Structures are given as structure tokens and as C-alpha cells.
Amino acid sequence: MTPQPVPALQTGDVAPNGALPDGTPLLALRGRPVILAFAPSTWNPAQAYQSEIFARLLREFGDDALTNAAPEFWHALDCRGELAAQLGAAGQRALLLLDEEGILRWKTIVEPGQELRAGQVLAALEALRPAPTTPPNTTAAVDTEAATGGMSRRTFVLATLAAAALLALPSVVTAAPADISARPIPTENRAAMLPIELNINGEKHRLELDPRTALLDALRGNLHLTGTKKGCDHGQCGACTVHLDGHSALSCLTLAVMAQGKAITTIEGLAKGDTLHPMQAAFIKHDAFQCGYCTPGQIMSATALLADPHTRHGSAVEIREAMSGNLCRCAAYPNIIAAIEEAQRA
Amino acid sequence: MHPFQYQRAENNGQAVAAVAKNPEAAFIAGGTSQVDLLKEGVHKPNLLVDVAGLPLRQITDFEGGVRIGANATNTEAAYFPAIQARYPAVSEALLAGASVQIRNMATMAGNPLQRTRCPYFRDPDQPCNKRTPGSGCAAIGGYNHVHALFGASEACVATHPSDLAVALAALDARVQTTGPQGSRTIAFTDLHRLPGTTPHLDTTLAHGELITSIDLPAFAGRSHYLKVRERASYAYALASCAVALEMDGPKIKRARIALGGVAHKPWRTPAAEALLAGQRPTEKLFQATAAAAFADAKPLEHNAYKIPMGRNLLVRALLETSGLQPLAGPAGTAFAASVGGMAGQVATPN
């Protein structure tokens, strides 16, 4: 099937009738405002987390009319689906707000590689204010349009909440890390949450996690142990290397639920108080990094290499081979090998 | 990622029952290949039954050979003394594959069950009969430089990516399984199948059939694995071969050859193997053997280079295994298995 090009829907236009994935026609949603959020259907922990915060804000801070029917206002949809094509959002991350009449009131398309920025959201909200006001704002990074005037309070509140949810994300995380860490990484199509206990750097952590959660995402997203880095997320770069029972392993390809019962060591677990692990010290001494993003993974592989009797006494060539699962795009390789050789001699 | 339930298997029987009764269920152990496919949206089980905790990790002497528990990691098997000494092709194939981290995670049963690295299989936006039966094959008219020379079909030209599987095929390993129909032994060469009209099926295992061990039969000969790839390390084979030679004085008593990176399964070459039986090893003989091994190759648009590459690789592997030429590194290590030297190592002249 070849998708037909669809002229982009303009704000102020009545949205063409399409159907939600469950078959509900858009026409049946008339009478209340609706937010359609399009994104790739691939489950992504960060995106799922954002969606959950949207939904929570709608539930917890909306007025009664909104609270009672919150789930019906918010539709997370696949940008590869039919509806996305009909509304001109095919393949894009986009937020569309339709009012009670089915008229497009707000459209935000986030271009690939860009994130929604506070300024754009504020501008859009300003434009949405019920009284006639400023013309829409557009930028190269985020294409935001909003129709002005004539909008009901209810629609405006909904839009405000959705936008506030986006903006609130960082402050929520920094304000209450302890609280957030105990919460699951939420999902769009929620699988049964599992109680999970992880032993990390000698400390036990209890979490409720979706079974899809990779150990890497649990470390970074739930426990805020951000020393372990996400590079490729597909086992090709080694940035996420941790130790499982003393052996190097990729946390991006390890389901958190399967890491239970194992001693997990991350880069945060190497130093003893203020005293760096000898490998960390050697990396600093030999300037074994440039940007530093791959460094935690390099150090975790290097420490495992020296703990392993099969590779401990390896030559420089053998060290290179044993380190081949850790890529460094700054190409600090000669210094990395020098650092490992020094730690090897120590 | 498609949502799934997770269950930790308590014993073999319970694991088999849990998967057998649910057509959308799958086993998981090391997860290195599977979690990646889950993230890609290629693999969509609704239930994962975790067999990593089952007591299937022992490597033991068995009937004059070695029995490798399904859950032994690739690292554990590669460095197991009896394997490294008596079946160096297995250690070489393992250590020349993937990275340390992945070898530490991947299991011996999981490695041969990894899915193809055909890029079209891994992209849900492309047609692929292996991923979505009936959707077509994007590789046949696409960029097919890593695809098959042998045994392909109009439905699929993918190759099997495992190095280990090539060594196990040459050594006539056997696979022990337990499944809904009971336990059985499968010749390793019968574990994988050709694509035919059903390329979505990689193996002859029934749904819910669990590998419990891989057995290396008694073997008193020499074995060796040799691999050529696009990088010096941490890359799949463009072409590879495993050779097992049993000698009778100066003559070859029996030879077994398996080619990797050229078919939907490790590709045994009976006609080429027969040329070696009873013969004294010479370079000329090995060239004739390699010619026979690739005589039936059917290249696609972009992979004809694999024919001379594979022939030369096989000649070199035979020279090295028979002792006419030294190995590029210590037997049973990645250095013996690598063509062109490892990163930072001066290549052995050849």
C-alpha cells in the first residue's frame, strides 16, 4: 500500500473523520476536546514515562469535568497508523488538539532529533488563550500552530495541563528523586508490573517494574544511577557495560527482572569513598578519554578484564581484543590501552 | 516493545509446559539476541519463560567427549580446558565471535538459536518472509552482500550468523532436547533447516522444545575455525569455515568441513570432504577440495566475492589444520581464528 500524500491539516480546519485503533470514529468524540499524541509505537521507557506523567496530571490536577473522563481526552497513537496519515502527522512525533467541534486548535510537530522546548509550548498556550490574542509562533525546530479565539475554557484547561505536563517533567524528577525511584517506569500498553529486587553495588533496591525494562533503564531511569551510559541501546557500543557477578555484561540487553539474584556493579560502585579505583585513576593519568561518554563502560570492561584469570596477563594486542566491545568515537584507544597496562602492572 | 509477561522456570518440565501451551511464548536465557529483537519490534512474544536459572550449566566428560550444559556461557565453554585442548575449533569460533560482554551473557544453547543478521529481517518497515511470512524478501532485489550462496530459496536468502554453529556442525555435535513429546537427540547438522517456503522457521525444534545440552562426541583429530570479517574484531563473519581432520599416519583418514556465512545453516560439503579421505595433505589437494566445496555456489547480485574469499579461506584452514602452515595464533584462541591479524597486531604474511 502506497500512502497518499495528505495536505497538512491547518489550525482552524475541521479534522477529517478517521478512526481510533479501537474503531471509534473521531466524530463520536465530538462534544469534548481531545488530544491526539502521535509517536512511533516502539515502546520507549522515557516516552512511556512522559505519557504517564501527562495522564497523571490530567487525572490529579484537572477540574472535575476533566478528571472524570481524563482517559478519553488523551489518545497515544502510532504515528505509522492510518489516523496519523489522515491528519498529516505520518511518521512524526506530533500533538494535535481538537476542540468540541472537531476543529484543530493546536498542532505541534516535533522534528526528528528535537525535543519540545518550553518557549514553544508557552507561545502555543498564549495563542490558545480564550480571548483573541497574538498570532501563532513557528520555529525551525518545533512547528507549533494554534488557532486563536473562541476556545472553551475546558479545551484551554486541557491544553494547559498537557503542556504543563511536558514542562513539569524535569522539575518533578529533581524535586522528589526518592519518591520517583520507587515508582515503576510506566508503559502505554501496560504489562503486569513485577516486584523486583536488585542488588546494586552491595545495596538492595526494591522496584516495581514492567518486565520489558532493561537493566540499563532501571539503573538510569528508576534509580538515578546515571553513571552507566546509554549509547546504542542495542549491544553494539559497550557504553552500558556493568558487572554481573563479577563478569562484564551489557545492561541494555539485560532485562532488569533477569538480573535479580546477581551482584550488579556499576561505575558508581568502584571507588571506595573518595579513593578512586586504580583503573579510574589510571584513566585520568593517561587522559584515556575525550568526551568521556564511553568511559564508564570502558572502565567496567577494563576492571573485569583484569579480574579475569584468562585475560589478566594479556599483551597489548590481547587487551585490544578483549576491549573490542567498547567503542570510543573520540578514538582515545591508545590512551585507554596505556591506562589498562598501567593498572595491569600495579 | 510489545508487552509480555515474565515467568521464571522452576524446572525443565514446567518450562516446556509453559511455552508449549502458548503459541506466543518463548524461552529466554542469555537474552543478547532476543532482547535486541524485542526492542526492534521483530520478536513479539506475550510470555517469556526464563530458563537461565535451570541447572543446565555444567560442562562434563561424556562418552569420551564433552557434554556442554545448555546454560553454560559462551565464555565458560570457550575456556573450558577439555574443549580448548581437544576441540579448539569450538573455542576459536566462540572467542572470535561477539564481544567479551556478550560472550559472558550468551549461552551455549542460545548462540546457535540466534536469528539472522539480514538487515531487512531487523527492520519492521521492510518486507521479510522470515519476520512476516508472505510479505516478500527485500534482500533478493536489495543489497545482498552478506547473503547466502547455498541452499537459498525464492522466499529467503538469509544466512545463519553463529560462528559456534559452524564449528559444532563440523564436529558432528549432538543436541539433547526435552519437549512436549519427550526427550530426543538431534544431530547438530539437522538442528537448522533451509528456508524453502517457510523461512520463518529457523530450526527443526518443536514449539516448546528446550535444548538441555550440546554434546561433543569423542574426537582424536585436529580442528580449527577460521573467519573473515569487515573489522578485526567484534563483527559477524562474511565467510568462515570449520575443519575437522582425523589422520592416519601421514594420510587424512576422515575430513569434515562446514562453511559459515554462506547459507541458512552451517553448510557441510560432503563431496569436498570425500576428496580428502585417504589422501596426503597437499596445497594442490586442498585447492581442489575448495573448488569442489564451492562448485554449487549460486551468488546473488552483491555476494559473488564470497566464492573466491571462501575458497581461499578453506584452503588456508586446511593448510593450518593439517600442519602444512602454522596457525596465525595460539590454537583455541581468537588469534588463531582471525584472518588479517587482530587490531594492533601485524598480519601474518599469507
Automatic annotation (TrEMBL), chain B:
The keyword Transcription does not apply. Residues 1-221 form the FAD-binding PCMH-type domain. Keywords: FAD, Flavoprotein. One of its GO terms (molecular function) is FAD binding. Pfam families: CO_deh_flav_C, FAD_binding_5. It comes from the Bacteria. InterPro entries: CO_DH_flav_C (IPR005107), CO_DH_flav_C_dom_sf (IPR036683), Diverse_Substr_Oxidored (IPR051312), FAD-bd_PCMH (IPR016166), FAD-bd_PCMH-like_sf (IPR036318), FAD-bd_PCMH_sub1 (IPR016167), FAD-bd_PCMH_sub2 (IPR016169), Mopterin_DH_FAD-bd (IPR002346). SMART domains: CO_deh_flav_C (SM01092). This is Xanthine dehydrogenase family protein subunit M. It comes from Hymenobacter nivis. The lineage of its organism: Bacteria, Pseudomonadati, Bacteroidota, Cytophagia, Cytophagales.
